[in-house]
Target: Glycosyltransferase family 2 protein
Amino acid sequence: MRENEMVDISIILVNYKNVDLTEKCIVSLLNSKTEASFEIIVVDNDSRDGSAEILRDKFPHVVIKDSGKNGGFAYGNNVGVRMARGKYLLLLNNDTEVNNGMLDALYRYAEKNPDVGILGCRALDRNGMELPIAHRYESLKRIMLQSYVKPVMEKMGLQRRLVKAVEHKKEGEKAFTLAQWITGSAMFIRRDLYYQVNGLDENFFMYMEDEDLCHRMNDRGYSVGVIPYMGYVHYCGGSTIQSYFLTKEYVKSRLIFFMRYEPDKFTKIKKQLYRQIAVVNPDISGAETEKMKRELDEFVRNKLSVAVKNVIGVKQ
Model:
């Protein structure tokens, strides 16, 4: 295939110090039976552990790109998108393994339904339990439930069942389940539409970038949703974030999102998000929590307004 020849699907994987899972994902893609033509682009987000070299040696026909820095999930995907030749993009988490037929199922549905902006499919976790994929937007009410109800539900092992019952109990039964946003582990998007909405916003280092992209796609009049095809397994992490940096990014991303879309409720939401710090990361100390709040307050004062107004994405 010529270097500038278009393919049906460009699959973008972002790797950061997780080469073993990335290898498994690539193998599952190469072994999947599909009629649609596709290319795989792996963006290594400055792992500095030899990941890019290992992948180049094992997969000479896969495009491996060094991003130059660890700019986050949105940044890495946008690096890959700029190299893409596909009519469609599949932004796929590297900790996934796809099933036969997934690519064709997404491609055929998208071809017949050009009004759908972002498309997903059903998925299982590592234990074979179905994951919630279709969601409603985050809200003050949902944050309060997460702060007070979620910890109890998690201890009882009921949290995921509750989400599925409330948000997408019919997902497996419908030809298409409409959603306000879908989980970013596998997002199928026409490439020209991705550029129209500026793609994933790099203001979000991690978390909320998928919901924000879906929001902007909805605002343009395109629908978002899930087809019933059981497409992949997602070997995702646990429900808690046991890292100071990631906990801070979790809250910061939500501050950007809510100031962008619900500024009238921002003060109340900010208060609840600060209460969530210990819920998100049970291992964080009281002193670290107070330090984080001060750092987040400084971000709100000095940088939030710019992040809210300016989407840092892709442009043609």
Notes: Residues 298 and 304 are 9 Å apart (CA to CA). The chain has a mean pLDDT of 91. The domain at 7-133+168-234 is CATH 3.90.550.10 (Spore Coat Polysaccharide Biosynthesis Protein SpsA; Chain A).
